[in-house]
Design goal:
Order of helices and strands: HHHHHHHHEEEHEEHHHHH
Strand order of the largest sheet: 1-2-3
Number of helices: 14
Radius of gyration: 25 Å
Strand content: 5-15%
Helix content: 55-70%
Distance between the termini: 81 Å
Shape: globular
Largest sheet: 3 strands, antiparallel
Structural class: mainly alpha
Amino acid sequence: MDKNNAGLTLRNEQTPSTQQTNHEELQKYLRAATADNTRKTYQSAIRQFEKWGGRLPTERETVVRYLLDKASALNPRTLSLHLTAISQWHYYQGFADPVRDPVVRKTLEGITRTHARPKQKAKALRLEHIAHMTTYLRALPKSKQTSRDLALLLVGFFGAFRRSELVAIQLEHLVWEPEGVLVRLPRSKTDQSGSGLMRALPASKNSSCCPVVALKEWIKIANLTDGHLFRRVNRWGTVGDRPLAAGTVNERLKAIGEACGFDFVPDMSSHSLRRGLSTSAARERVDFALIKKQGGWRSDSTVWEYIEEGQQFDENAANILLEKMARLVSDEN
């Protein structure tokens, strides 16, 4: 039985072959109701629970023992995710959910208060970092990999794309306009219903840092006509048919950051582009609504968090006091 899509069956008087077809159709739609990444994450959590010795269905005492055993080894957020996966399994399989038990919830709450760790955040790339990386790539001998990396960098930053969205872009998703290019993705992380994502990349007067120019250069040098936009390039400069792996986006950013001499390379990831756009825009006093629109954020609180991060030195009570103190010190001298 599918551990993710709980024993839902269709009982009627249809023939066995029709029932099998209906079952397959049902499973297809049940799988489509959950994002692939979420399903994989839950499956991994279930495997870890079973590897520990747990069996499904399970009961409260086993879940509590699992929490106690893993309390100091796993981040409380990871443990919470594991409980969600176990809870979902029981819910969809039609069994009583042990995770809803007050003792289980209280145990997790206590572990969280005792072992909570600050959430690791990707380093937000500033505009000057992007400028330095762009200059570095432009100075390299022209190649397909360099052209791809430059387009990946500029499109990822100015479009505030997630890495899953970047590697999903296909040529048919691009709509060229006199002002720039529109990227229309049929689905994204926060848009699983398929209503679509649209991101506008305006053209810049300076071609050396323009995402639209970089995109056109990559498409031309790679001789792309259809299919995925960002693809693998082997050591001989051959462009493959398969899309760039999501993990490769992180690898390329780190490699470029290291070549540029950044001292925060370990904290870089593809999310550095998305965070970088929002915090950089906040420093330039870009309107809240425009930042939210470009990043496609659904939550206002997430956008405000980025804005506060970007303006934490400008919007700071200590600034006024420092100015006053500077005057006082000057008067005393």
